[in-house]
Amino acid sequence: MTQTASPVPVAQNFPVLFPTKLSPLGSLDAYIGAVNRIPVLSVDDEQRLARRFRDGEDLDAARELVHSHLRFVVHVARGYNGYGLGIADLIQEGNIGLMKAVKRFDPDQGVRLVSFAVHWIRAEMHEFILKNWRIVKVATTKAQRKLFFNLRKSKKRLGWMNAEEVRAIAADLKVSEREVREMESRLSGRDIGFDAPDDGDEDGPPSPVAYLATQGEDPSQLYEREDEEGDKLDVLREGLAELDARSRDIIKRRWLDSDNKITLQELADEYGVSAERIRQIEANALKKMRALFVA
């Protein structure tokens, strides 16, 4: 079983802004859907809220900063779903890291909160994974649990078993020989330190924790890219709204309708003008919209 984080203060004078323990079993999808509906902050809003919290200890500002980044914690947690731990546990650990990041965030450093927070979110998740890794991975299947409790007393001697002993134990416990060897290896292994060695030798090999990484794109870059794409979509909608009805229809059908793109001549026939006139209207509309993107 995995450990469950308790809703405790993350630091002195900085109480928990929302319960770190997720809702009852079965509501994880509802939680993820809810946090994805929370608006993403613009750069100006993020800076304003961060200064309100830093300079005046405004917990309402801190709460808004935390809430607007809960979806990012979900992004990071999904990158660790190959370690055999529940994503709900990872999310609530990451939420604690997010609150620690908000407390330490300096808006004058010229970086977005999401780039700063990823270190704290990952740190909390890493600590949770490392505390629970061996418990989770030694025996997970029914056959592994059977071997876990019976293999030691089934062995006749110290040291690694030979092929005959492996076959005998596999037949006795009704498991495969591969599972017997795998469990023997797990039980014979020893825990090693995942953190840096105590001697502080910077020239030594990296500690195992250095290899504990998410899969795929870095979550902070993914989040920032999606945030940027969302801003561009808002600008696109704004630009379309400022066009007249004919120009808006031409742009939508020429550039935004990927399933059924229309030609200049087809639009010309529909509007009763020349294809050149449709091209001119299209060019003027694109020029107006382009000005919004570079503003």
UniProtKB/TrEMBL annotation:
Annotated GO biological processes are: DNA-templated transcription initiation; response to heat
Q: Where is this region: Disordered?
A: 184-208
User: Which parts of this chain does the entry mark as a DNA-binding region?
Assistant: 264-283
- GO cellular component labels: cytoplasm
* Residue positions of motif Interaction with polymerase core subunit RpoC: 89-92
Cite a single GO MF annotation.
Answer: sigma factor activity
Provide the RNA polymerase sigma-70 domain boundaries. Answer: 89-102, 263-289
Q: Where is this chain's protein located in or outside the cell? A: Cytoplasm
> One short Pfam family name for this protein?
Sigma70_r4
Segments for region (Sigma-70 factor domain-4): 239-291
Extract the ranges annotated as region (Sigma-70 factor domain-2): 65-134
Where is composition skewed (Basic and acidic residues) in this entry? 184-193
Record keywords: Cytoplasm included? yes
Keyword flag Nucleotide-binding? no
Keywords carried by this UniProt record: Cytoplasm, DNA-binding, Sigma factor, Stress response, Transcription, Transcription regulation
Entry superkingdom? Bacteria
Task: Tell me which Gene3D superfamilies the record gives.
Answer: RNA Polymerase Primary Sigma Factor, Winged helix-like DNA-binding domain superfamily/Winged helix DNA-binding domain
How is the quaternary structure described? Interacts with the RNA polymerase core enzyme.
Identify its protein family: Belongs to the sigma-70 factor family. RpoH subfamily.
Question: What job does this protein perform?
Answer: Sigma factors are initiation factors that promote the attachment of RNA polymerase to specific initiation sites and are then released. This sigma factor is involved in regulation of expression of heat shock genes.
Write down the PANTHER family for this protein, in alphabetical order.
Answer: RNA POLYMERASE SIGMA FACTOR RPOH (PTHR30376:SF3), SIGMA FACTOR RPOH HEAT SHOCK RELATED (PTHR30376)
What name appears for this protein in its UniProt entry?
A: RNA polymerase sigma factor RpoH
Instruction: Give the source species.
Output: Cognatilysobacter lacus
